[in-house]
């Protein structure tokens, strides 16, 4: 199990690719089409821009992969409701899902996954008056901490800071309402969601991150991957493409384009 210090010192959101690594490019010349399946409602990963065009980090990543693998003519991107993605992949409506589906043992029995390319951290978000305080077991033990009940973040908080007795909330909206109202000093949750809320008008400049990001494969999963049907060459092709994008700095450029400064 990770320790708090190990979590803070993790390599960061963009999972590292050894630039000396070699990933052979499989032969996908016989693959007639590569249709990426995604969603519309998970910004900044997938969303419709002001002109109604499909945009986002994952959308640009899919297009960059097609360019790098020199298969632009075969590539298509289609948006579906999130709960239809797995069935669409199974029935061959699409060929690869790039939509932040969490990797589980059950899914691994049915599908293949590319290597992870991004992981989302957990963060503490605090009222401005306490945002500068250190994140230590002693400091947190005396603080009023909010977390959503029955989530990975509740389990992670308990494992890393067992002396904390948090205030539990049924959902993120209730937790953030309590933070803004001063009913708790700090909340613990998914860093990206907390970043966008704190920058929104709803937060009214009430809050700021406290301490650094926390990463944990045990609690937060392997990270963002591309899901494909089992036994097909696309996973190896995507692994090759992701390595090339990392080597060229394109993966980092996409990250800088879509994610708020200070999130990680």
UniProtKB/TrEMBL annotation:
Coiled-coil zones: none
Primary localisation category: periplasm
Domain called Solute-binding protein family 3/N-terminal: residue spans: 33-262
SUPFAM superfamilies from the UniProt entry: Periplasmic binding protein-like II
Compartment list: Periplasm
Gene3D superfamilies, A to Z: Periplasmic binding protein-like II
Pfam families in UniProt: SBP_bac_3
UniProt keyword annotations, A-Z: Signal
Domain Ionotropic glutamate receptor C-terminal, chain residue ranges per copy: 33-261
Full protein name: Polar amino acid transport system substrate-binding protein
């Amino acid at each position: 199990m990770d320790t708090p210090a190990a979590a803070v010192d993790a390599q960061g959101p963009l999972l590292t690719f050894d630039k000396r690594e070699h990933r052979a490019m499989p032969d996908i010349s016989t693959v007639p089409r590569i249709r990426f399946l995604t969603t519309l409602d998970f910004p900044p990963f997938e969303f419709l821009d002001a002109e109604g065009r499909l945009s986002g980090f994952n959308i640009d990543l899919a297009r960059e992969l097609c360019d790098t693998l020199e298969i632009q003519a075969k590539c298509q991107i289609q948006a579906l409701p999130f709960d239809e993605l797995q069935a669409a992949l199974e029935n061959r409506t699409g060929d690869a899902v790039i939509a932040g589906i969490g990797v589980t043992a059950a899914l691994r029995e049915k599908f293949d996954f590319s290597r992870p390319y991004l992981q989302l951290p957990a963060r503490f978000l605090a009222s401005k008056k306490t945002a500068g305080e250190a994140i230590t077991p002693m400091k947190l033990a005396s603080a009023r901490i909010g977390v959503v009940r029955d989530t990975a973040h509740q389990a992670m908080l308990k494992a890393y800071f067992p002396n904390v007795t948090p205030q539990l909330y049924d959902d993120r909206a209730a937790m953030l309402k309590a933070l803004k109202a001063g009913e708790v000093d700090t909340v613990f949750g998914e860093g990206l969601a907390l970043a966008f809320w704190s920058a929104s008008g709803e937060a009214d400049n009430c809050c700021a991150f406290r301490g650094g990001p926390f990463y944990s494969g045990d609690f937060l999963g392997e990270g963002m991957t591309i899901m494909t049907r089992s036994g097909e060459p696309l996973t190896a092709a995507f692994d090759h493409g992701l390595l090339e994008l990392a080597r060229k700095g394109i993966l980092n450029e996409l990250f800088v384009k879509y994610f708020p400064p200070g999130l990680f």
